Amino acid sequence: LSGREACSGRSDGCSAACLAESTGKMSFPNAQRARRRRHASFYADRRRFLADLHAEVAKHERKAKRAGKAPAIRLNGTTDLPWHRMAYVGPDGVSYPSLHAAFPNVHFYEYTKRPRSLQGAIPSNLSLTFSLSERADAEGYATEYLLAGHGVAVVADHKRHVPPPTFSIGGASYPTLDGDAHDARFLDPASHIVMLAAKGRAKTDTTGFVQKVA
Fold first, then answer.
1. Of 11, 93, 168, 200, which sits most exposed with the smallest number of CB within 10 A?
2. Which residues pair with 175 in a beta bridge?
3. Range list of H helices, the chain
4. Which H or E run contains 126?
5. Half-sphere exposure of residue 201, counting CA atoms within 13 Å on the CB side?
6. Angle formed at CA 84 by CA 43 and CA 19, multiple of 5 degrees
7. How many helices (H) and strands (E) in the chain?
8. In angstroms, rounded to a whole number, what is the distance separating the alpha carbons of residues 126 and 97?
C-alpha cells in the first residue's frame, strides 16, 4: 500500500489476512499513516533512518537496563527487510556492519518469508522464525529453517491456546508450541512449530494460507 514492496515473500493469503490492515490498533488510520511515513523515510534517506534507529535502540537498551530487564526488539512489524545485512554510520560517527553488531546485548527477533539461502550469515542475537504460507515452495523453505534450528510459524484453524501437539511439514512431524502465549520468539526452543490461531480476516481464508488442523 505504500507503493514499495517491503515483504517480497508474501503470498496472496497472508496479504489478505494481514493483521496490520484488518485487526486491532494497528489497523487504525493513524497507525497506518505512521507506517507509511516510516516506510517513506527509510527509502528517502536510509543513512539518516538507520542513524536515528541506532539512537532509538540505544535508548531502549538503557531503559531496559534500568528496569533490570533484557532488551528485545522486533524491527520488522509489517515488513520483511534484511536489517542484519545493512551497514551504516551511527550518530556517534562509527561505522557498523549492522544494528545487531552494534548492540550485541539486545535480542532481535523477526518473522520472515525470505528463503534461508537469501538471509546470509545470521547474527547470534537474531532469532528468525519462518512464516509458512500457501505458496508451493513454502514447505521446502520451512524445512530448511527447521533443520537449521529455527522455528516455523503456522496460522491454523485451531482454538486459541489449544494447538495440536505436533504438526507435519515436508513429511516430517515437529513439536509445536502456543505462539499466542507470547511474541518473544527468541525464547522458543529450537526446531519447533509456532502455532498461531487464525484471527481477523484469516478466519474466513479460502487460499490455503490458514492450515486445517481442527
1. 93
2. 166
3. 12-17, 19-22, 29-44, 46-67, 99-102, 138-147
4. strand 126-131
5. 15
6. 65
7. 6, 9
8. 14
- In terms of C-beta density within 10 A (0-12 exposed, 13-18 middle, 19 or more buried), how is residue 58 classed? middle
CA distance 169 to 161: 21
Quick check: helix, strand or coil at residue 168?
Answer: strand
Q: Is the pTM of this model over 0.90?
A: yes
Question: How confident is the model over 152-198, as pLDDT tens digits?
Answer: 999 999 999 999 999 999 999 999 999 999 999 999 999 999 999 99
Q: Which backbone phi and psi does 187 adopt, to 5 degrees?
A: -90, -10
CA dihedral 15, 21, 23, 25 (to 10 degrees): 150
Q: 202 is written with which cell numbers?
A: 484469516
